[in-house]
Task: inverse folding
């Protein structure tokens, strides 16, 4: 199993390449670099399921969080926005004997393509590559498999207020063939399928620096 140190080293390298290798390109158009943080709410439906004692359970929705950084490049009214952030999602399985909390930690690397609809209102969509850091379920004897990655899609909108942005999006992780047999403390065994958690994500973003800050015009309109 990969350690957190190995993952952090890999993500640090990705961030360094993202911001340094793109430095030459961003000099020719408007850009901004910033940080983001917020909460998420899992909407699982059939995303994360457990088959236990002939009864199938889906993870009930719960709150989690995310935090990271972004680079945004603007081409008139169009934008390209790579991001990197840590995402912790949660759900809960309402087993008959007792509920069991389920959590999923991952690094998400979305590449978003967007359009400035009106003044400070942008819409966007794009793919996201996800490194799974850790999966945990309460009352189990076996650690959950976490040494893989997922492909997801994200889409949403954001509203800018000077250097601040309010960002609302939906994160959908594509189905996989992953499964695992899980042994519980009470002697029960379960079939754990996929383990993905789809989410609604609300973030507050802050632009630290760039040439696309409050006084800069974009697409004939200006930010508030």
Result:
């Amino acid at each position: 199993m990969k350690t957190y140190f190995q993952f952090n080293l890999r993500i640090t390298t990705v961030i360094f390449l993202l911001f340094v290798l793109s430095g030459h390109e961003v000099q020719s158009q408007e850009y901004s670099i910033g940080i983001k943080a917020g909460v998420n709410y899992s909407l699982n439906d059939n995303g994360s399921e457990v088959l236990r004692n002939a009864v199938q359970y889906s993870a009930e929705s719960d709150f989690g969080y995310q935090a990271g950084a972004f680079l945004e490049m603007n081409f008139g009214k169009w934008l390209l926005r790579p991001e990197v952030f840590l995402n912790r999602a949660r759900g809960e399985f309402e087993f008959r004997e007792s509920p069991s909390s389920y959590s999923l930690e991952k690094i998400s690397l979305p590449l978003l393509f967007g359009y400035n609809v009106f003044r400070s209102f942008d819409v966007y969509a794009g793919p996201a590559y996800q490194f799974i850091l850790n999966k945990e379920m309460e009352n189990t004897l076996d650690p959950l498999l976490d040494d893989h990655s997922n492909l997801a899609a994200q889409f949403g909108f954001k509203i800018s207020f000077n250097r601040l942005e309010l960002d609302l999006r939906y994160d959908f992780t594509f189905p996989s063939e992953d499964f695992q047999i899980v042994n519980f403390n009470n002697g029960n065994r379960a079939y754990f399928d996929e383990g993905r958690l789809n989410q609604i994500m609300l973030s507050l973003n802050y632009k630290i620096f760039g040439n696309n800050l409050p006084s800069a015009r974009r697409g004939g309109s200006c930010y508030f």
Observations:
- Residues 4-21 form the longest helix (18 residues).
- The chain is about 10% helix and 60% strand.
